[in-house]
Description:
The structure holds 2 protein chains of 2 kinds. Helix content of chain A is 70%, strand content 0%. Chain A is an all-alpha fold. The longest helix of chain A is centred in the last third of the chain and has 37 residues, at 171-207. Chain B has 3 helices and no strands. Chain B has helices at 16-37, 44-64, 72-97. Chain B starts with 15 loop residues before the first helix and ends in a 9-residue tail after the last helix. In chain B, 25% of the residues are buried. The interface between A and B is large, with 61 and 59 residues.
Amino acid sequence: MPDPHAEHFPGRIHQPPLVANLEAIQPHDQIELPHHPKLQHHFDDMAQQIEASTLGMWVFLVTEIMFFGGLFAAYLVYRHANPEGFAEASHHLNVTWGAVNTIVLIVSSLTMALAVRSAQISAPPKTQVAWIGATMLLGATFLGVKAIEYADKFAHHLVPGPNFRWEGKHPAPAEIFYSLYFCMTGLHALHMIIGLGIMTVIGIMALRRTFDADYYTPVEIAGLYWHFVDIVWIFLFPLLYLIGGHFTE
Amino acid sequence: MSDGQGHFGHAHIAPASMYYKVFGALIVGTILTVFAAKVDMGALNNVVMLLIAGTKATLVILFFMHVRWSTRLTWVVAAAGFFWLLLLFSVIGDYISRGWVPGTLR
Lengths: 249, 106
């Protein structure tokens, strides 16, 4: 390599530039510590990254607790004002369908937890997708049962509004009960539908070999959401389906 | 990472058997709550129902949602949400007991 400055400094001994020297000794890929390609630049390491995501998801779930908490508070106030009416109205819900759906959601939480675990142990993508698919199938089953129940309520004029009809002793409290029933289970069902959308994305990511023991944050975060929706139903089922009067059957 | 252990993270991976045990407890809780609802215990029915639901929710949070192995910061944030619920129901319970909510004094 000819020295470009040779003609200005005839006595100079040729030396490659300092920068080129450094590059020859320590290429950049050896100076930097190895890091995972999924590590965002603003995090120190993968552990900090997943902790930040988990914490952020929990902050969102706290707002969800407040969201559903308001509805549970409304339920408490109206049920306390109309205990007999609520018991009478609850009697018309199908305990079997409610219990079946509770079991379906608990099984879906198990498959969801195992989907996260399969990513954590770097199981093959088809295993991960199988658990995610099973979770989605159970979620869809839940919504199917809910559709059957809703259709039955429409057929029997139990939907609050001008066509609401009640044969029992407490028509007004029964209408309040069914307003709360549709608000609470409807909002819960909306969360299930959103959950199915999230799981579709997670399933595609798993198919594309996104998740392994080093990086499984999205499937873990989706799991937190799915389990939270399950917890809401764990409270909705006894409070709506199982109050007073069932022992008289 | 064929050995199943990540080279970058240090997450706790629970054995699959733990998930099946928690699942079994949740199913038992569901069956218990249906049968408890058919026994006339007066006001105790509500207490039993909420105790079972609360236990089931705690199991899901601690084990399925991995809070058992999460950092203390996550613990505090999660607990704050449920503490807020406690405040909400305490205040509303207080209002109801004073008859400040129309129709609830008995």
